Amino acid sequence: MNVADDKIVVKEYFNNTGFDRWRRIYGDGEVNKVQLDIRQGHQQTVDTVLSWLNADDNLAGLTICDAGCGVGSLSIPLAQAGAKINASDISQKMVTEAKERAEAVLGNSHNLTFSVQDLETLSGKYHTVICLDVLIHYPQEKAAEMISHLGSMAESRLIVSFAPKTCALTLLKKIGSFFPGPSKATRAYLHRESEIVKILESNGFSVQRQAMTRTRFYFSRLLEATRS
Ligand SMILES: C[S@@+](CC[C@H](N)C(=O)[O-])C[C@H]1O[C@@H](n2cnc3c(N)ncnc32)[C@H](O)[C@@H]1O
Questions:
Q1: How far apart are CA 219 and CA 214, in angstroms?
Q2: Cys bridge to 67: 47, 119, 197, 200, which one at CB 3.0-4.6 A?
Q3: DSSP string spanning the chain?
Q4: For the chain, what is the mean pLDDT?
Q5: What's the domain range around 7?
Q6: Distance between CA atoms of 11 and 81, rounded to whole angstroms?
């Protein structure tokens, strides 16, 4: 499958079976054990980002781009903390769900705007650009392009997460659980941390904080990089 095909498949997936699956995982209703494990793992990643940004004590008014925002799991608490968020996702369904969740929590007037957009078509400048758990859908060469584009919009900081290649065997064994049934059509790509760091550095960033979330079925390496 080539890179363009990956994007078409990912968009289709997150507007159909993937939407139903991930909306449940990123919610608080009843789910199966595997989905619960992934929900808890993902929440840890979100909580780590929130703890880093809260520790800096400058969230109010900070401009943040959340690229591939899903149902708004990160954007909504960041907007609650006073940051100005531009949240976008390739999936119309994900964005509609995120908007509904934002309205339920924040009401109609808030500092959070949404758009349906492939992250490569995003533009503008933000203090911080964040892209969580999106790179798993793209191969290395595409990840390099994406990070480079996201970096060009980040005035100060870029935060990305990815499934690290070091966990390859474990993850590959579990991939059937990530994408059961028809959604197996969506490939999961692992990335070597050294490669991601190299891409960040070649775009003028250096890694400041890092974390790893590892549960039974969820693996995510999180890097915060700032302009060197
Ligand atoms: C696993 S979810 C993570 C969602 C969110 N970042 C979070 O951590 O809660 C991956 C999301 O990336 C979106 N996505 C995948 N490829 C994308 C692309 N090229 N541009 C924008 N969004 C994309 C999907 O539609 C999906 O909502």
A1: 5
A2: 119
A3: --HHHHHHHHHHHHTTHHHHHHHHHTSSS---HHHHHHHHHHHHHHHHHHHHHHHHT--TT-EEEEET-TTTTTHHHHHHTT-EEEEEES-HHHHHHHHHHHHHHH-S--SEEEEE--GGG--S-EEEEEE-S-GGGS-HHHHHHHHHHHHHHEEEEEEEEE-BGGGHHHHHHHHHHHS-GGGGGS----B-HHHHHHHHHHTTEEEEEEEEEE-SS-EEEEEEEEE-
A4: 91
A5: 3-227
A6: 30
CATH of the domain at 95: 3.40.50.150
The model carries a pTM of 0.94
Mean pLDDT, range 38-47, rounded to an integer: 98
Q: Give the atom of ligand 1 at the shortest distance from the alpha carbon of 14.
A: 25
Atom of ligand 1 nearest to the CA of 72: 9
In DSSP terms, 87 is beta-bridged to 66, 114
Our count of domains for the chain comes to: 1
Closest residue by Cα to atom 26, ligand 1, is: 70
Question: How many CA within 13 A on the CB side of residue 190?
Answer: 15
Mean pLDDT of the region 141-147? 95
